[in-house]
Amino acid sequence: MRTSLRIFFLGGLTSYRALFHWLTPWILIPTFVVGPIFQLLFFAYVGRAAGVGDDTFYLIGNAVELASIPCLFAMGNTIGNERYTQTLGLLLASPARRLPLFLGRALPVVVNGFAVSFLVLVLGALVLHVSIPVAAWAPLVAVLAVCAFSCTGLGLASAALALRVRETAVLSNIIMGVLIVFCGVNVAVSALPAWMQSVAQVLPLTHGIEAARELVAGASWAAVMPLVRDEALIGVVYGAIGMAMLFFFERESRRHATLELA
Amino acid sequence: MPVIEVEALTRRYTTRTGFRRRTRKDVEAVRGISFEVGRGELFGLLGPNGAGKTTTIKMLITLLLPTSGSARVLGHDVVAEPREVRRRIGYVFGGDKGLYERLSGLDNLRYFAELYGVPAREQGPRIGELLELVGLTGRERERVEGYSRGMRQRLHIARGLLHRPDVLFLDEPSIGIDPVGARELRQTVASLTSQGTTVLLTTHYMFEADELCDRIAVIAGGLIVAEGTPAELKSRVADGHVVEIEVFDGVGDRLDAVRAIPGVTSVGVEDGGHSQLLVVRTDAAATVTPAVLGRLDGLALGRVATREPTLEDAYVELVRQA
Ligand SMILES: Nc1ncnc2c1ncn2[C@@H]1O[C@H](COP(=O)(O)OP(=O)(O)O)[C@@H](O)[C@H]1O
Ligand SMILES: [Mg+2]
Questions:
Q1: Segment B157-177, tens digit of pLDDT
Q2: What helix, strand, coil percent values describe chain A, rounded to 5?
Q3: Is residue B65 less than 8 Å (CB to CB) from chain A?
Q4: Distance from CA of B64 to the nearest CA of A (A)
Q5: Which residues in A lie closer than 8 A to residue B81 (C-beta atoms)?
Q6: Residue with CA at minimum distance from ligand 1 atom 3
Q7: Ligand 1 atom closest to the CA of B171, numbered from 1
């Protein structure tokens, strides 16, 4: 138990440092700060010019959505890159419990995703002169954290798949595209075709973005609670799918040598 | 009780190639091998590339299921009780991959110490001890991406020993490191067995197997073609001599003629860049040498020498027959 806890917390952080190769200021600041702010401004100004939506709408949508950059790419790296370093065989030859081994890698990613969202929210609010009610900040921060969590769940599922198909970035890019279109980031979910609305219900971020917008509009925590709960649940489901896939691939790899171990 | 028991072990790989028209191809990588390794023994699996060494090791360390047959390590079945096996064994492979480049050597070791459940307060002293053993003390805080090949290999060894495994599997550990490094590595390995660790080592270097191993199994084409102590394997070819002739022209079309000489047991050619070395095994060197020279008449010849057979000759012979 103690060993598993250490693997979850310490091991997870070590893997994140070891395998997320964006962890240098030259990549980190442009990808997690500069790029995201440009994305936010782009949509906010398009919205202003077209006379649809207000700045707050875009600020919330993009701040939450941008957590997906680390949630997908960092998660993909910290699991998928085991193949490139050829350390996967060593991991799987170890007696370590797989649940803390892989799940522990998600924790730093959640923190990373949350940090990006929070930074975009604060910087974006300053740049666009959006004022968020003081009372809304605390629950808003909680929603950002839950969204970073749920998106990391999806990231884990995608990373598991990436381990098998040997390509993390392609998949992460596609999923990012899906999220930005389907989850009500820049276009309200209600304005989407019906089938897209259905898809949005089973994606992370949709419920969280809705909850965040309601909070800024003055709703109470109790009022958005069901949305936040659904958001978290979606994260748990994707995370479980990801872990199940990792277990399955390991088993299958022992049988069919499919993970090309070392 | 033997530490490693392998019985009629086989492994087949099925590969599928092609996108539209999928074709299936089966490779019989290991075709029914059996051997036992006792406690504290240094056992060598010696064979050419593709012989099935890595496949065998992967089955023993629980990364790969056997197609048929069985294997037990320290009494635990590798299929039924993988975790019991994993806890007690160490695994090191050659080459410079398999390390986290962005981390320091120390962090690499710490990470695997966690994975193997080395208690927190023992980690520091154990890592210090191992860094000392493999000669990396003082370099442990540098990132691995700056390590030389030899340093990486030594870090690998330290990693494999963190949890004091009873059995250590070394898959071609000296591949790609310089002769001095390889010698140090052999000394390290030898010192392990003197402390009671059982080692199964694969290699395609004869002298390495000869120098290190208590017992060797020669594996070729997925089968064990010979097994014994280095001395026993040598004695199989002890009677007889080896005649080596350096040839500067193509020798290919004369080989059959040389083979036909009475008293010649086998003929091989080793490419030496600007010349070729004709290696003739015989049980009557005195009469065969002139006959061979006769068959090579007209070719530019260099050094001609007669010597005792080595383990390498035994190995080449065994592998060729397989
Ligand atoms: N994952 C794999 N899929 C298909 N064939 C494989 C795989 N791994 C090894 N082989 C084949 O199995 C045979 C034995 O390989 P291996 O055990 O790696 O040999 P060695 O380690 O002695 O060089 C070779 O013919 C090799 O090509
Ligand atoms: Mg090999």
A1: 999 999 999 999 999 998 878
A2: 80, 0, 20
A3: yes
A4: 4
A5: none
A6: B13
A7: 21
What is the pLDDT confidence band of residue B317, given thresholds at 50, 70 and 90? confident
Where is average pLDDT lowest: B7-21, B54-68, B230-244?
B230-244
User: Where residue B152 falls among pLDDT bands split at 50, 70, 90?
Assistant: very high
Decide if pLDDT at A198 tops 90.
Answer: yes
For residues B22 and B81, give the distance between their C-alpha atoms in angstroms, rounded to a whole number.
35
**Placement of tokens 């790609």 in the chain:** B176
Neighbours of ion ligand 2 (CB under 5 A): B 53-54
Distance CA B170, CA B165 (A): 12
Question: Do A83 and A259 meet the contact criterion of CB atoms below 8 Å apart?
Answer: yes
> Does residue A261 contact residue B63 with C-beta atoms inside 8 Å?
yes
Tens digit of each residue's pLDDT (9 = 90 or more) over B284-314:
777 788 989 989 888 888 899 988 877 777 7
End-to-end CA distance of chain A: 29
- A227's torsion region: left (phi>0), alpha (psi -120 to 50) or beta? alpha
Q: What pLDDT was estimated at residue A261?
A: 61
Contact A121, A137 (CB under 8 A): no
Domain ranges of chain A: 2-15+30-256
| Tens digits of residue pLDDT in B169-223 | 999 998 878 888 888 888 889 888 888 899 999 998 888 888 889 999 999 999 9
Write phi, then psi, for B67 (nearest 5 degrees): -75, -40
CA separation for the pair B229, B34 (Å, rounded): 16
Check whether A262 has a pLDDT greater than 60: no
Distance B50 CA to ligand 1 centre (A): 5
Angle between helix A55-65 and helix A134-165 axes, rounded to 10 deg: 40
The C-alpha atoms of residue A134 and residue A253 are separated, in whole angstroms, by: 53
Residue of B26, B55, B56, B204 to mutate, ligand 1, most atoms within 8 A of C-beta? B55
- Which residues of chain A neighbour B102 with C-beta distances below 8 Å? 17-19, 21, 23
